[in-house]
Amino acid sequence: MSELIIRRAHEEDLSALIAMFAEDDKGGHGDTTDPDAYEDYLRAFHVIDASANEQLFVAEQDGEVVGTFQLLFTRTLTSRGSLSMIIEAVQTRPDMRSRGIGAKMMDFAVDEAKRRDCRLAQLTSNAVRSDAHRFYERQGFVKTHAGFKMKLK
């Protein structure tokens, strides 16, 4: 196996990313490889790619996308106007889990937060993902808040 490369996602990665999200049986996001949905993903990709405050990354090994995550940067008036980073849409391809890919993605994300002088890095994880929770805790994340969501669609 070659070295793991973490890089900004390209439009050409979209099919692999969609497939990875569609394979997720715990997320409940309604992701699908149905060709009719491709334009929705493509529009979202272009919005993310053009944003100064969002970045979509892939982990690539041997020329294949094996993981992904998205970073969002937000400034608030609390904490004296500090910058925070939110990590979203973390996925490792199911057949590539437990190989250190997720840890390398999180290390990359935290390094990016430090580079940008963020006050904190934060993420949420579905309550049913107990394995992921243990993983994030091993990476140094601490459960500090309860999350709330309201589905609108």
Molecular structure report:
- The structure is a single chain.
- With 153 residues, the chain is α+β, with helices and mostly antiparallel strands.
- The chain has one domain: Aminopeptidase (3-Layer(aba) Sandwich), CATH 3.40.630.
- The protein is built from five helices and five strands.
- The longest helix has 15 residues, at 101-115.
- The chain is globular, with a radius of gyration of 16 Å.
Brief synopsis:
The protein is of the alpha+beta class.
CATH architecture: 3-Layer(aba) Sandwich
Please trace the helix and strand order, writing H or E for each element: EHHEEHEHEH
Could you give me the name of the CATH homologous superfamily?
A: Gcn5-related N-acetyltransferase (GNAT)
Compute the average pLDDT: 93
How would you sum up the major sheet?
Answer: 5 strands, mixed
Helix content, binned percent: 25-40%
* Number of individual domains: 1
* Beta fraction: 15-25%
* End-to-end gap: 42 Å
Strand order in the sheet with the most strands: 1-2-3-4-5
The CATH class is identified as Alpha Beta
Shape: globular
